[in-house]
Amino acid sequence: MSRPMLEVIALDPADAVAAQAGGADRLELVTDIAADGLTPSRETFAAVRAATDLPLRVMLRTADGFAAGDVDALCALAEGLLAEGADAFVLGFLDHEGRPDLVAVEMLIAVIEGCRWTFHRAVDRTVDRDALRKELADLPGLDTYLTAGAPTGVDDGLPVLLAEAAQAGQPGYEPRLMAGGGLRLDHVPRLLAGGVDAFHIGGAARPAGWDAPVSADAVRIWREELEAAGGRGAAARPDN
């Protein structure tokens, strides 16, 4: 397995700088974490982009929940972020039946054509995870699923994450699986051993709470655990 990836939620340039100092590989840029992360302003994106050279994915979401809402407004936000230099995004919407809102998703990816994107934790609320993956399988740019395996978090979703990781490369399961949502350090060894190689943290990077900035030391602890657990797993595999 290659070096495990660590993605950290950033709200501003200070978060971005601390995350990079701690060893993060990528940032997810959002605002309004009380609403579980919404689209940041162009100005915030530009300031964060100037503060770090880490890869950066920007949330496209205008309200709490997983309904798309005003898709035209979302498209306008995406266009503005593209004009500022954004080149990767996070999005994902469900319809009123809990199935993927393909109209909204396809409208947005037409705007961000050529960009890579993550389908976020809407996958944890869908009525059929496997069907969702297969419906989205041919959409251009989709390279990651951010998922806890369950709406309530990784504690409950761990078996699902491991089962989906075991299907990597099969139709609908080509995108990278990134574990996030109630993720703890003690989950890491089992996930790595099961083939999960990407991890997403938000509150875990802020020991003092969401009102405090990202802690470089907290991110460093995660980076070191990922490296150590990955090394232990590699040593235990007989083909290494």
From TrEMBL:
Superkingdom, natural source: Bacteria
Task: Name any one Pfam family assigned in the record.
Answer: CutC
The coiled-coil segments of this chain are none
Which Gene3D superfamilies does the record match to this protein?
A: Copper homeostasis (CutC) domain (3.20.20.380)
InterPro entries documented for this protein: CutC-like, CutC-like_dom_sf
Family the UniProt entry places it in: Belongs to the CutC family.
Protein name per its UniProtKB record: Copper homeostasis protein cutC homolog
Q: Which organism is it from?
A: Streptomyces lycii
